[in-house]
Amino acid sequence: MRADILEVAEADFDQAVIQYSSTTPVVVDFWAPWCMPCRILSPTLEKLAAEAAGTFRLAKVNIDENPGLAARFGVQSIPMLKSFRDGKIAGEMVGAQPESEVRKFLRGIAPGPADQALSEAQGLLTARRWDEAEQAARRALELDPGNSPAAMCLVKALLREGKGSPALEILDRFPTGAESSAAERLRPLAALLSEVESSADQPGNVLEAGYLQTARLLARGNYPAALDGLLELLRRDKHYRNDDARKVFLAALEILGEDDPLTRQYRDELASVLF
After folding, report:
1. Within the chain, what is the greatest distance between any pair of CA atoms?
2. Is 153 part of the annotated catalytic residue set?
3. Is 38 noted as a catalytic residue in this protein?
4. For the CA atoms of 19, 22, 24, 25, what is the dihedral angle to 10 degrees?
5. Which residue out of 35, 143, 191, 215 is catalytically annotated?
6. Which member of 16, 17, 27, 38 is catalytic?
7. 56, 224, 231, 265: most buried, per Cβ within 10 A?
8. Which residues of the chain have pLDDT under 70?
9. Which domains does the chain have, with CATH numbers?
Protein backbone atom coordinates (compact mmCIF):
# COMPACT_ATOMS: atom_id res chain seq x y z
CA MET A 1 0.00 0.00 0.00
CA ARG A 2 1.12 3.56 -0.77
CA ALA A 3 0.97 6.24 1.92
CA ASP A 4 -2.16 7.65 0.29
CA ILE A 5 -3.84 4.22 -0.05
CA LEU A 6 -4.39 2.42 3.23
CA GLU A 7 -6.60 -0.03 5.13
CA VAL A 8 -8.58 1.65 7.90
CA ALA A 9 -10.32 0.08 10.91
CA GLU A 10 -12.68 1.40 13.57
CA ALA A 11 -9.78 2.13 15.93
CA ASP A 12 -8.02 4.56 13.61
CA PHE A 13 -10.89 5.77 11.41
CA ASP A 14 -11.34 9.15 13.08
CA GLN A 15 -7.66 9.97 12.86
CA ALA A 16 -6.99 8.51 9.40
CA VAL A 17 -10.17 9.85 7.79
CA ILE A 18 -12.00 12.52 9.77
CA GLN A 19 -8.99 14.45 11.04
CA TYR A 20 -6.92 13.85 7.91
CA SER A 21 -9.69 15.27 5.72
CA SER A 22 -9.20 18.71 7.28
CA THR A 23 -6.12 19.11 5.09
CA THR A 24 -6.55 16.51 2.30
CA PRO A 25 -9.77 14.99 0.91
CA VAL A 26 -10.33 11.34 1.78
CA VAL A 27 -12.32 8.76 -0.18
CA VAL A 28 -13.50 5.79 1.87
CA ASP A 29 -14.12 2.55 0.00
CA PHE A 30 -16.52 0.34 1.97
CA TRP A 31 -16.01 -3.22 0.68
CA ALA A 32 -15.94 -6.92 1.63
CA PRO A 33 -13.84 -9.87 0.38
CA TRP A 34 -16.90 -11.79 -0.87
CA CYS A 35 -18.17 -8.82 -2.92
CA MET A 36 -17.33 -9.32 -6.62
CA PRO A 37 -18.29 -5.75 -7.66
CA CYS A 38 -15.90 -4.54 -4.93
CA ARG A 39 -13.09 -6.53 -6.55
CA ILE A 40 -13.95 -4.97 -9.91
CA LEU A 41 -13.91 -1.43 -8.53
CA SER A 42 -10.84 -1.76 -6.31
CA PRO A 43 -8.13 -1.79 -9.04
CA THR A 44 -9.69 1.27 -10.69
CA LEU A 45 -9.72 3.15 -7.39
CA GLU A 46 -6.14 2.25 -6.58
CA LYS A 47 -4.99 3.20 -10.09
CA LEU A 48 -6.68 6.61 -9.88
CA ALA A 49 -5.42 7.21 -6.34
CA ALA A 50 -1.87 6.48 -7.47
CA GLU A 51 -2.37 8.72 -10.50
CA ALA A 52 -3.63 11.53 -8.26
CA ALA A 53 -0.24 11.54 -6.48
CA GLY A 54 -1.48 12.53 -3.05
CA THR A 55 -4.23 14.99 -3.96
CA PHE A 56 -6.60 12.70 -2.04
CA ARG A 57 -6.29 9.69 0.28
CA LEU A 58 -8.01 6.37 -0.42
CA ALA A 59 -9.08 4.63 2.80
CA LYS A 60 -10.36 1.05 2.44
CA VAL A 61 -12.79 -0.27 5.06
CA ASN A 62 -13.62 -4.00 5.20
CA ILE A 63 -17.19 -3.98 6.53
CA ASP A 64 -16.98 -7.61 7.68
CA GLU A 65 -14.19 -6.64 10.06
CA ASN A 66 -15.62 -3.20 10.88
CA PRO A 67 -19.43 -3.54 11.13
CA GLY A 68 -19.57 -0.56 13.47
CA LEU A 69 -18.29 1.75 10.73
CA ALA A 70 -20.80 0.33 8.24
CA ALA A 71 -23.61 1.02 10.72
CA ARG A 72 -22.25 4.46 11.62
CA PHE A 73 -22.29 5.61 8.00
CA GLY A 74 -25.41 3.79 6.86
CA VAL A 75 -23.68 1.42 4.47
CA GLN A 76 -26.37 -0.95 3.18
CA SER A 77 -24.96 -1.79 -0.26
CA ILE A 78 -21.37 -2.26 -1.39
CA PRO A 79 -19.14 -1.19 -2.88
CA MET A 80 -19.88 2.26 -1.54
CA LEU A 81 -17.61 5.27 -1.77
CA LYS A 82 -17.94 8.18 0.61
CA SER A 83 -15.77 11.26 0.30
CA PHE A 84 -14.80 13.38 3.30
CA ARG A 85 -13.65 16.98 3.38
CA ASP A 86 -13.12 19.06 6.54
CA GLY A 87 -14.37 16.17 8.65
CA LYS A 88 -17.72 15.91 6.86
CA ILE A 89 -19.16 13.72 4.14
CA ALA A 90 -18.85 15.57 0.83
CA GLY A 91 -20.28 12.97 -1.57
CA GLU A 92 -20.97 9.31 -2.20
CA MET A 93 -21.19 6.76 -5.01
CA VAL A 94 -22.66 3.24 -4.94
CA GLY A 95 -21.76 0.27 -7.13
CA ALA A 96 -18.92 -0.76 -9.43
CA GLN A 97 -19.16 2.20 -11.79
CA PRO A 98 -17.05 2.48 -14.96
CA GLU A 99 -13.77 4.35 -14.75
CA SER A 100 -15.23 7.43 -16.43
CA GLU A 101 -17.85 7.77 -13.67
CA VAL A 102 -15.30 7.15 -10.93
CA ARG A 103 -13.11 9.87 -12.42
CA LYS A 104 -16.09 12.23 -12.47
CA PHE A 105 -16.77 11.46 -8.80
CA LEU A 106 -13.13 12.04 -7.86
CA ARG A 107 -12.96 15.22 -9.95
CA GLY A 108 -15.50 16.77 -7.61
CA ILE A 109 -13.27 15.97 -4.64
CA ALA A 110 -9.76 16.79 -5.79
CA PRO A 111 -8.61 17.75 -9.27
CA GLY A 112 -6.16 15.16 -10.56
CA PRO A 113 -3.27 15.65 -13.00
CA ALA A 114 -5.58 15.29 -16.01
CA ASP A 115 -7.88 17.99 -14.65
CA GLN A 116 -4.93 20.24 -13.93
CA ALA A 117 -3.60 19.75 -17.46
CA LEU A 118 -7.06 20.51 -18.88
CA SER A 119 -7.34 23.68 -16.81
CA GLU A 120 -3.92 24.73 -18.07
CA ALA A 121 -4.92 24.02 -21.68
CA GLN A 122 -8.12 26.05 -21.36
CA GLY A 123 -6.19 28.98 -19.90
CA LEU A 124 -3.64 28.81 -22.71
CA LEU A 125 -6.43 28.78 -25.29
CA THR A 126 -7.87 31.93 -23.75
CA ALA A 127 -4.39 33.47 -23.87
CA ARG A 128 -4.14 32.51 -27.58
CA ARG A 129 -1.04 30.38 -26.98
CA TRP A 130 -2.18 27.69 -29.37
CA ASP A 131 0.88 25.41 -29.43
CA GLU A 132 1.17 25.31 -25.63
CA ALA A 133 -2.60 24.71 -25.35
CA GLU A 134 -2.24 21.79 -27.75
CA GLN A 135 0.52 20.22 -25.65
CA ALA A 136 -1.39 20.65 -22.38
CA ALA A 137 -4.56 19.17 -23.89
CA ARG A 138 -2.57 16.19 -25.18
CA ARG A 139 -1.18 15.61 -21.68
CA ALA A 140 -4.71 15.65 -20.27
CA LEU A 141 -5.84 13.07 -22.84
CA GLU A 142 -2.83 10.85 -22.18
CA LEU A 143 -3.80 10.77 -18.50
CA ASP A 144 -7.52 10.43 -19.22
CA PRO A 145 -8.34 9.26 -22.78
CA GLY A 146 -12.07 9.60 -22.15
CA ASN A 147 -11.85 13.28 -21.18
CA SER A 148 -14.11 14.91 -23.78
CA PRO A 149 -13.45 18.53 -22.60
CA ALA A 150 -9.72 17.90 -23.14
CA ALA A 151 -10.43 16.46 -26.60
CA MET A 152 -12.49 19.54 -27.47
CA CYS A 153 -9.72 21.79 -26.21
CA LEU A 154 -7.21 19.91 -28.35
CA VAL A 155 -9.37 20.15 -31.49
CA LYS A 156 -9.78 23.91 -31.00
CA ALA A 157 -6.05 24.40 -30.46
CA LEU A 158 -5.23 22.40 -33.59
CA LEU A 159 -7.72 24.32 -35.70
CA ARG A 160 -6.36 27.65 -34.46
CA GLU A 161 -2.95 26.42 -35.57
CA GLY A 162 -4.37 25.53 -38.98
CA LYS A 163 -3.79 21.79 -38.46
CA GLY A 164 -6.81 20.26 -40.15
CA SER A 165 -5.64 16.65 -40.53
CA PRO A 166 -4.63 16.17 -36.87
CA ALA A 167 -7.91 17.76 -35.80
CA LEU A 168 -9.82 15.28 -37.98
CA GLU A 169 -7.94 12.41 -36.34
CA ILE A 170 -9.12 13.55 -32.90
CA LEU A 171 -12.68 14.06 -34.16
CA ASP A 172 -12.73 10.54 -35.60
CA ARG A 173 -12.06 9.05 -32.16
CA PHE A 174 -13.70 11.74 -30.04
CA PRO A 175 -14.70 10.49 -26.56
CA THR A 176 -18.38 10.23 -25.74
CA GLY A 177 -19.45 13.22 -23.69
CA ALA A 178 -21.36 16.48 -23.54
CA GLU A 179 -18.94 18.03 -26.04
CA SER A 180 -19.54 15.43 -28.78
CA SER A 181 -22.18 17.42 -30.68
CA ALA A 182 -20.19 20.65 -30.53
CA ALA A 183 -17.10 18.78 -31.71
CA GLU A 184 -18.95 17.46 -34.77
CA ARG A 185 -19.86 21.02 -35.73
CA LEU A 186 -16.14 21.69 -36.11
CA ARG A 187 -15.64 18.83 -38.58
CA PRO A 188 -16.37 20.88 -41.76
CA LEU A 189 -13.66 23.37 -40.80
CA ALA A 190 -11.17 20.60 -40.01
CA ALA A 191 -11.98 18.91 -43.32
CA LEU A 192 -11.45 22.12 -45.30
CA LEU A 193 -8.13 22.88 -43.60
CA SER A 194 -7.04 19.30 -44.26
CA GLU A 195 -7.99 19.69 -47.92
CA VAL A 196 -5.78 22.74 -48.47
CA GLU A 197 -2.94 21.07 -46.58
CA SER A 198 -2.83 18.28 -49.14
CA SER A 199 -3.33 20.28 -52.33
CA ALA A 200 -1.48 23.29 -53.66
CA ASP A 201 -3.38 23.32 -56.98
CA GLN A 202 -5.32 26.45 -57.87
CA PRO A 203 -8.74 25.51 -59.30
CA GLY A 204 -10.01 27.24 -62.39
CA ASN A 205 -13.43 27.85 -60.86
CA VAL A 206 -13.51 31.34 -59.31
CA LEU A 207 -15.83 30.39 -56.46
CA GLU A 208 -13.79 27.31 -55.60
CA ALA A 209 -10.56 29.29 -55.67
CA GLY A 210 -12.09 31.84 -53.31
CA TYR A 211 -13.34 29.11 -51.00
CA LEU A 212 -9.93 27.48 -50.71
CA GLN A 213 -8.36 30.90 -50.15
CA THR A 214 -10.61 31.42 -47.12
CA ALA A 215 -9.22 28.15 -45.74
CA ARG A 216 -5.66 29.42 -46.12
CA LEU A 217 -6.61 32.64 -44.35
CA LEU A 218 -8.17 30.64 -41.50
CA ALA A 219 -5.03 28.49 -41.26
CA ARG A 220 -2.97 31.68 -40.88
CA GLY A 221 -5.31 33.00 -38.21
CA ASN A 222 -6.75 35.83 -40.32
CA TYR A 223 -10.34 35.19 -39.32
CA PRO A 224 -11.84 38.58 -40.35
CA ALA A 225 -10.56 38.25 -43.93
CA ALA A 226 -11.61 34.61 -44.11
CA LEU A 227 -15.11 35.33 -42.81
CA ASP A 228 -15.46 38.23 -45.25
CA GLY A 229 -14.49 35.85 -48.05
CA LEU A 230 -17.01 33.25 -46.92
CA LEU A 231 -19.76 35.88 -46.74
CA GLU A 232 -19.02 36.96 -50.30
CA LEU A 233 -19.16 33.34 -51.42
CA LEU A 234 -22.48 32.79 -49.63
CA ARG A 235 -23.94 35.88 -51.27
CA ARG A 236 -23.37 34.15 -54.60
CA ASP A 237 -24.43 30.69 -53.48
CA LYS A 238 -26.10 30.22 -50.09
CA HIS A 239 -25.63 26.45 -50.24
CA TYR A 240 -22.14 26.28 -51.72
CA ARG A 241 -20.65 22.78 -51.65
CA ASN A 242 -23.81 21.22 -50.23
CA ASP A 243 -23.90 23.81 -47.43
CA ASP A 244 -20.28 23.23 -46.37
CA ALA A 245 -19.37 26.91 -46.73
CA ARG A 246 -22.06 27.91 -44.24
CA LYS A 247 -21.00 25.14 -41.84
CA VAL A 248 -17.36 26.25 -42.06
CA PHE A 249 -18.45 29.81 -41.29
CA LEU A 250 -20.36 28.66 -38.18
CA ALA A 251 -17.46 26.45 -37.09
CA ALA A 252 -15.12 29.43 -37.33
CA LEU A 253 -17.45 31.43 -35.08
CA GLU A 254 -17.49 28.55 -32.60
CA ILE A 255 -13.70 28.54 -32.57
CA LEU A 256 -13.67 32.28 -31.91
CA GLY A 257 -16.10 31.81 -29.01
CA GLU A 258 -19.05 33.85 -27.81
CA ASP A 259 -16.83 36.33 -25.96
CA ASP A 260 -15.04 37.43 -29.13
CA PRO A 261 -16.60 40.64 -30.53
CA LEU A 262 -16.16 39.26 -34.03
CA THR A 263 -18.62 36.46 -33.29
CA ARG A 264 -21.70 38.64 -32.84
CA GLN A 265 -20.70 40.94 -35.70
CA TYR A 266 -20.27 38.12 -38.20
CA ARG A 267 -23.22 36.10 -36.97
CA ASP A 268 -25.45 39.12 -37.69
CA GLU A 269 -23.83 39.52 -41.12
CA LEU A 270 -24.40 35.85 -41.90
CA ALA A 271 -28.08 36.19 -40.98
CA SER A 272 -28.44 39.18 -43.30
CA VAL A 273 -26.93 37.15 -46.15
CA LEU A 274 -28.93 33.96 -45.61
CA PHE A 275 -32.25 35.50 -44.69
Report:
1. 82
2. no
3. yes
4. 90
5. 35
6. 38
7. 56
8. 1-3, 200-201
9. 5-107 (3.40.30.10), 113-183 (1.25.40.10), 188-274 (1.25.40)
